[in-house]
# Entry
Amino acid sequence: MSDRQRSERSPELSKGTRRLDLATAFTYVVWIMFTVSAFLLATTFTGVYHPSVPAPFTFDGLTAVIWAIVTFLSGIVHSYSLRYMKSDRNVGDFYLKIFGFTLIVMALVAVDHVALFAIAWLAMSLVMASLIGHVRSWPQALEAAKLARIYFLASTAALTAALAVTAWSTETTSISGVLANLDTVPRDVVFLASALLVLAAMLQSALFPFHTWLMSSMTAPTPASALMHAGFVNAGGILLTRFAPVVSAEIAVMSLIAVVGAFSAILGQALMSVQTDVKGKLGGSTVAQMGFMVLQCGLGFFSAAIAHLILHGLYKAYLFLSNGAAVERGKPMKPRKTSTPILLATSLVTAAAGGVVFAVLTGKTTLAFDTRLLLIVVVVLTTLHAARDVLGRSNLYMSVRLATLPVLVMIALTAYAVLFNFISTMLDDLPATYAPTELTVAHLAIALAFTVAYVAAEAGWHTRSKRLYVALANQAQPHPKTVLTDRGEYDD
Amino acid sequence: MTDGEKNVDEVVEEAAETLASVWPLHSFVAANPLSGYEDRGFHEALELSHRRHGAEPYPDVDTLERAWSQDNIDDDVLRSKLDKYDVELEPEDAFQRLEQARSERPGKEVGSGNRDVDRLTAKWLSMHLDEGQAGWSMPCRDEGFYQAWRHLASYDGEIPEVDGSDDLPGSAEEAVADALDGYGRERQIEICRHHLESLSGWSGYIRRRNQDPHDPWKEEAPVTLTDYLAVRFELADLLEASIEPPAELKETESQPLQRAFLEAWEDSYRRQLLQKLKSRDDAEEETDADAKLVFCIDTRSEVIRRKIEQEGAYDTHGYAGFFGVPMLHEPRGDDHPYAACPPIVEPEHHVESKIRLAERQKVRLNRHYNAAITASRKHLKSMKNNVVAAFPFVEGAGTAYGAAMAVRTMTPGLLHRAYDRVKDVVGRPAEFTQPDIRAGEDSEGERGNDFQDVGEGIPLEARVEIAEDAFLLMGWKELPPVVAFVGHASETTNNAFDSSLDCGACAGQPGGPNAKVLAEILNDVKVRSRLRERGHEIPEDTVFVAGQHNTTTDEVTLYTDEAPPGQDELLKQLEDDVDAARELAAEERRSSLHRVTEDDGAAESERRAFDWAETQPEWGLAGNAAFVVAPRDYTRDVDLEGRVFLHSYDWESDPEAEALEAILAGPAVVTQMINNHYYFATVDDSVYGSGSKTTQNPVGNAMVYQGNAGDIMTGLPRESLRKTDDETYHDPLRLTTVVKAPRSHLEEALGGSDRVKQLFDNGWMHLVVVDPDQDDDAFLYQKGMNWVETHVEATEPEVEPEPRSKTLD
# Structure
């Protein structure tokens, strides 16, 4: 036996091994919870078995869906971290936190009591903040955790206030009771409560102007970031969905939600375009995607928002977990523009077809001037972009490009539609989760904003403004105290 | 231009002398972060660096304690070293003293207001130096960093009092001269050095980019150190921060103690090593070998060489892994070549890998495959980044991402095997391309290309020289029927530091292409006849073949398709034997890995290679501690634990000590760079290393932050050096170079290379000569060509002693 094989003798390692054994145990438990959740999801969906739980708990479609996705993501993060975090000094703590986080999120969607809901909300936030500050010897990480904590406390305060006024006016403490008795609540109170709920959601989902905590959270270990961007930030969407009857009571509030969401959606993508660090870009992207999710809520498509948060969660977790692959030798490149009138025409036709297929597959065929149109506009623009991009790939044969395009569009739309219809069915038993509203000026403005943003970005108009560039770069910056300028402080 | 402005460049240049270059991660170079201090003694440099940067100079007390309790630091040696430094303490008490010193040490001060200067400078640098991450890159950056910043500063709300570019000096020189006005020259240099080293990651990166004649980003976004200083000084002025450096830290009191420990550890290792070499059983009769295999001097070659030699009648050699081919290599389909030679060697030839004629069919398929992959990746990127399409894209593709995530996490092998299957069908470029060394031949010396300083292809004269160097440096006399040159590369996934595991002698690139070039050169009849004229005989039926060693999995691929016919049977046998050796090597290396999940070495090594959650795919060069320059006979069959660089050398065939001089000037310096890099990144993994991979954040396609932003981290990540946060794997020891040759011979060689002599004199590495004229006694080099005999007793192999159980309370 050589001298290099000496570790077995060291006491630290055996301690570390014990911690990892605990981590392995947690990992098994999470996967068991996933199995149970998936089973319950299937039985609930098929109607074979719907668990009934005693007060103050509930198990409805939203609970089933969120349990399944949260345990899946958490299972991945647990398994991944067994290897990824194996050298970490505090790996035991890390597992306690991510496992605890999982349980709390499961509780959040399964309680039917305003106080328990607020407590779960707070607990979930505090655990997440402590994951941001996981490396305790690193002052910038502790600052980032502190910053996040302030935002989360504000969001809990807003939530608590909203719950308190509604519970007080309805004289009930169960969430279902509150929602059922909303019509007894004065309009002003509902308005106030909905405004507070929107505020809480914006803080938690890091929407503009509350995105700085998220942009400063990259001190968290990568798997914790995955859990944050794929799980934690979704709480805003879950909140709005859970309290859909409150927020959808007023069309003005709904329009406001839509505008707030759309603004973050466009801004987030713009932040992403000027950023040069991988995790910062992903942060900008999360701000954007959360904006879109909130926009969907504001349009009355709460089940679409839930579908979005699930799919975005899978997407964003993957990108975080694979961030090490993002360093590659680049070379300066000039943007490539190959487009002919014929290709553009083909793209437009594909785009229109995409819009129709989307409407058919997701049951939005009835012709009515409501917010469904807005979602269709977004899908049309997307299909247009996909078509232009695929058809412009000059290193592929034209026949390949033409054959690939419809296949690609159909696969993507079908994959989405299947999940969307599934979620819609699951959320059928929740109040007011599908409530498209009539079109307002705000909606037209949003449609226009997306279209203009698309055209401007494609034409490169934005690149003429130095002021815009600097403004975006500054918006994307983390909080000054969370920036490591003196490398020695990393390990103080 | 005023006099002050003319002086600026000189002052900046002088201030930058101690600044270490920082290489991009995709071409990782393990360099000595204190290379600018190599003209000073090792300990003095450490002290200075500690005072200036607050860096830890020596291994921490826990590491030393562990080494001592495991007998890696010999008790007697330690006591004598403590005596040497007048430390009157028992080892146990010495540890306590160190522990105490650690807790009392003051932190580094940051001058007031300088945090914002640092942060804002870093913010602007991150935009300017981006190499393709941002979709919208910084406006005006082609005008240079200072000018671009000058145009944009007025829009930055964080910068007070600038309403337009006219509020700022017209040139960087002017800005720096203004700021330094009124200080004496020495003070100017001190101020500049302080500011350069305040963000030494970024400034080191700027320095490196400007030193590299082939960096494609230099034109896209030019930046000089003067630009950098100009922006800093302007920011300091606007933010009302002082530009004068804060007081340096005080000398560490525990220094003599730490020196004693370090030297004791080094001495203990050296004794152990020399003892092992002396005690080797050399009774075995030499037989004629069937094949010679030439590996890189890399420490990872040591294990696989030992195993291959056990499999059959094979001789193995160690040679610098770029195989003496100083080329700028351009892989197929990539119009951006890289230097495939050590950073201390200038590339002389531009060589492009082209498709071999016989492989046309496979190539067509491969081209389609590549086109499809590239198109898909670009399509995904375009969808992700689009301001509208990103949202429905995520909804359409989320399911697929989720599935991929589950597969990569739960069964890392599945995707890899599928990918391997695909590669089997579409082919691997390494198997059907060949570096085109004859490219310049037809055009009558007209070696025109975009690289002014290097010629196209390798001319015959240069080929002969490259071939002859191989003979001389390795001391070859007779050649067997098969000679294989085996370069190396690593195989990892999701690893920003992947190139740090590739061939250091090829500047963080795979070594296969270089091996192919040398094999082709030696298979060439023209070269052979010229060699014969110079007295190097190559038997007619000897074939040369290239190969590549996968250092992560220990697989060795031989490119036998490219070898000339004649030795097919031997080659077949050799392929089988390296496969068998691979199993053994992987098994041996498995035992040193942290947290293995598979039962056998081969499976474990493969899992590590393609597991996206793995932060320690292999140990790289961690553990490196010695460089042995000797015939293989001297080290054969000795288990050197993968810690030793091995260069073949036969002093008897090098009467003028020329080859030895070349080995000391080249490979020895490279091993010292690597060894010092590992040392410093281990003793302080935030100042000299890049901290834990788990909180890193890649930036600009070339570097990493820790966390959100700030200075870029330099050096190896913690996981490359430590098993866990609290337990080092790499023993931070200075390299011991062991040369087997008469002392006079070595002195002659040393006389010819000032740089390497300076490194030995100043204690950046140690030198031991094992003198065959004096019964193989070993002598340790001391400053100024003095030697001290180190007594080494050959020992009978004995039962391993029980580890002492020492307690320290």
Notes: Confidence is low (pLDDT under 50) at residues 1-13 of chain A. Chain A touches chain B through 128 residues (CB under 8 Å). The radius of gyration of chain A is 24 Å.
